[in-house]
Design brief:
globular
């Protein structure tokens, strides 16, 4: 009985398998190695592909990290979508900011490779700027405009960017704490601080 080999797979399928193997390998390395020790050669070895195969798709490791981050942000937005349609989102137990932040923290807990990239600011500025429409701040912007009727414009955009930059650094500080209780205490303060800054009284 003949066993199908990779050579018999359509080119597109083989290419997709190679890309996914590279992304999985890079994610695994991010979870166990300092980022500065991760090279394209190590990623290729971990993925079980040749360095030439890796360079067919990525010219440098930053492109791989950016794609991991992009996929993660897309997944986060998909996961959050059902929560954003909840009728009691504003006048229930949680305001929009808490919903987005709680979901984001849960996502970071479950995706350590993305957490390392996002909180360590290892996503390229080009990718960060090009994907603002699926970032947490964009999700929150939509909620503030659609659900709280806050006026869109340059002022709101600036406040959201300041909140996002501040939030990223403070969330990273929270994850640097020695205990889960200490981390959660910092996060509670972050939510309270950003809530006072962004949300009107409701």
């Amino acid at each position: 009985m003949n066993t199908p080999s990779n050579r018999r797979l359509p080119l597109q399928a083989r290419s997709n398998e190679t890309v996914q193997a590279i992304l999985r390998a890079a994610s695994a390395l991010l979870e166990k190695s300092p980022l500065e020790q991760i090279t394209t050669s190590r990623i290729a070895e971990e993925a079980g592909v040749s360095i030439g195969a890796l360079y067919r798709f990525y010219s440098e490791k930053q492109e791989i990290f950016d794609e991991i981050a992009l996929h993660a942000l897309e997944n986060f937005r998909e996961e959050l979508a059902p929560l954003l349609t909840a009728k009691k989102l504003i006048f229930g137990r949680k305001n929009p900011l808490d919903v987005v932040l709680d979901a984001y923290i849960d996502f970071l807990d479950r995706h350590p490779a993305f957490r390392i990239l996002a909180l360590g600011r290892h996503i390229s500025e080009r990718t960060r700027e090009s994907q603002l429409d699926i970032a947490p701040e964009a999700i929150l912007k939509g909620l503030l405009i659609d659900r709280l009727k806050i006026k869109p414009g340059a002022k709101l955009q600036l406040k959201l960017r300041i909140a996002a930059e501040t939030g990223d650094r403070l969330i990273a500080y929270a994850y640097a704490q020695e205990s889960r209780a200490a981390r959660d205490a910092v996060l509670a303060e972050v939510k309270a601080m950003l809530g006072r800054y962004l949300l009107p009284r409701i």
